[in-house]
Write a structure and sequence with these properties.
Blueprint (H helix, E strand, L loop, with lengths): L3 H63 L18 E2 L9 E2 L7 H5 L3 H29 L6 H7 L3 H29 L7 H32 L3 H30 L15 H9 L17 H30 L9 H10 L1 H26 L17 H7 L2 H19 L4 H24 L5 H14 L7 H34 L4 H11 L1
Antiparallel strand pairs: 1-2
Helix pairs in contact: 3-9, 5-6, 5-7, 6-7, 7-14, 9-11, 10-16, 11-16, 13-14, 14-15
């Protein structure tokens, strides 16, 4: 009887061990099933990723085989989302600008973690500039200014600038009214009659006169109000933008009425609605179309983010001026400077110069353009291409600013090639290049208040010859040339600004007493 409890206990332990082993086996089987399913999912994901990559590679190869090549080995047009030209239906005509629904290049690139790091580096340098400015302000002045003095000076009389801009913008509405009157009355004259020709040439003269007055009047108002440098820059850039917009509208729509044949079966053309013209005036493009690809909704967080980055970029430019440019040239005119000083500061200005170049491109062509494109639901946001990968100046000039390049191509290059000087690419490209150089110098001359053709000379002596050299250079060489070029521009303009400031100051200072006595005795 004494052995029965021990036997029962032993049997219980044995049952417990059996149950534990069974539970362990079940647990192992469950874990094995989960691992097997996970491995199958990973295998499926890997296969889908490989198939996707292979399909992309085959698509790229197919595009390279299917798309014809130009003489210099570059693509005439592309069938992917970065294509911006479509072949014309007219024989011998150049391709036309094509609008598609697509993001800006940096918008897509920033979704890649490795490229996003570049953005983070940019923000890091901005924060370091900010901390440096705050530290310098506290140590030297006992207060935090954070570039506000530079911005306050640069944007002085900003309300006056907006007032002048409003009159400029309002005057462009008259272009639509005058064009509608011309188009409506023209169809009532006999085709190719003397009255029709007189009507056409009279309104052409009126349009040319309007363009001339549109150049003169804002400049007189700007100079009369003595606007600050950034306000002058705004007026000049907006003046050129509005002139290009008006020319694009008249040139595109007028050709419909001029080519219309009354005795044909084609119905007479209708002038665009005012809403279409108004949308074009504010749309982030310079090439006119009655309709553009549109997005379905406005993403207001994208708008806010782009405007915030736009404001931060302006502060970034102010930090560059205060920290890297002004300290290098404030000694000009206060002491004797030899040629070594000029060479040293020209090279030293190359770094802030290239920072300015990249920041201005990001500020205007990415943040500002994308913000307004989102507000207006403008779907085609190819405002620039990968200019930073350029190995020739031919590629750089076509990818740096796609918005302006499209206007020059559509309304200058195509008209020169197809109408003025048929089938002469050399003269057409030369005309485009010189117009671009003159307009750049025109903007800077009235922005700074003096004519100092540094950019024009660089365009003619370096940019123009390099434009026709299609040999591929190193991308490093391109970046060095951009850096040195901007360094020369910054250095010479800064020196000229300080020299003129000292000249004005010396004229306002009272003359020495002994000099006044000598002049008085000489007069007597």
């Amino acid at each position: 009887m004494s052995e029965s409890p021990s036997i029962d206990l032993h049997e219980k332990n044995k049952d417990t061990a059996v149950n534990g082993n069974a539970f362990t086996d079940i647990l192992y089987e469950a874990i094995a099933d989960v691992l097997q399913k996970t491995i199958q999912e990973i295998r499926q994901d890997v296969l889908e990723y490989v198939n996707h990559r292979i399909n992309n590679m085959m698509s790229d190869v197919h595009q390279k085989i299917a798309v014809p090549l130009a003489k210099n080995g570059e693509l005439l047009y592309r069938t992917d989302k970065h294509r911006d030209k479509r072949e014309s239906s007219k024989k011998g005509a150049l391709p036309n600008k094509e609008f598609l629904e697509r993001n800006s290049l940096l918008t897509d690139l920033f979704n890649i973690p490795h490229i996003r790091t570049v953005y983070n580096v940019f923000m890091m340098t901005f924060l370091l500039f900010l901390l440096n400015s705050i530290a310098c302000d506290i140590i030297e002045y006992g207060t935090i200014r954070v570039g506000t003095n530079t911005l306050r000076y640069a944007f002085a009389k900003f309300p006056t600038c907006i007032f002048i801009w409003s009159f400029m913008q309002a005057s462009t509405f008259g272009v639509y009214a005058a064009f509608t009157l011309w188009a409506y009355r023209r169809l009532q004259f006999l085709p190719k009659s003397s009255l029709q020709k007189l009507w056409d040439y009279s309104w052409l003269l009126i349009f040319i006169l309007y363009q001339i007055l549109f150049i003169i009047c804002p400049i007189k108002a700007m100079l009369g109000a003595n606007l600050s440098i950034c306000c002058r820059m705004i007026i000049m850039l907006e003046q050129i933008r509005m002139i290009m917009k008006c020319h694009a509208f008249v040139r595109t729509v007028a050709s419909r009425f001029l080519s219309y044949k009354p005795h044909s079966e084609i119905p007479p053309p209708n002038e665009p609605r005012f809403s279409q013209y108004l949308y074009f005036l504010f749309a982030p493009t310079l090439v006119y179309r009655d309709e553009y690809p549109r997005t379905k909704r406005v993403r207001w967080m994208v708008v806010i983010r782009n405007f915030v980055e736009f404001g931060l970029s302006i502060f970034y430019l102010a930090f560059i001026l205060e920290s890297l440019i002004l300290p290098a040239y404030h000694v000009f005119g206060t002491q004797h400077l030899d040629w070594k000083w000029y060479v040293k500061n020209t090279i030293k200005s190359s770094f802030p110069g290239i920072c300015f170049l990249v920041t201005i491109n990001y500020l205007l062509l990415h943040t500002w353009m994308n913000a307004w494109a989102e507000i207006l639901q403008f779907a085609d946001r190819l405002f620039y291409k990968d200019w930073w990968n350029s190995t020739t100046y031919y590629t750089f000039f076509r990818t740096w600013n796609v918005v302006v390049h499209d206007w020059l191509y559509t309304y200058i290059y195509k008209d020169m090639y197809e109408i003025v000087i048929p089938y002469n690419r050399m003269l057409s490209a030369t005309t485009v290049f010189f117009i671009s150089a003159i307009v750049h110098e025109y903007i800077l001359a009235f922005t700074f208040g003096f004519f100092y053709p540094v950019i024009f000379i660089l365009f003619i002596t370096i940019g123009f010859p390099m434009f026709f050299i299609r040999k591929n250079f190193s991308n490093l060489f391109m970046w060095l040339s951009w850096s040195l070029g901007t360094g020369i521009i910054f250095s010479l303009h800064a020196i000229e600004l300080y020299a003129r400031k000292l000249s004005i100051s010396s004229q306002l200072l009272p003359r020495p007493i002994h000099t006044a006595k000598l002049e008085l005795s000489g007069t007597i």
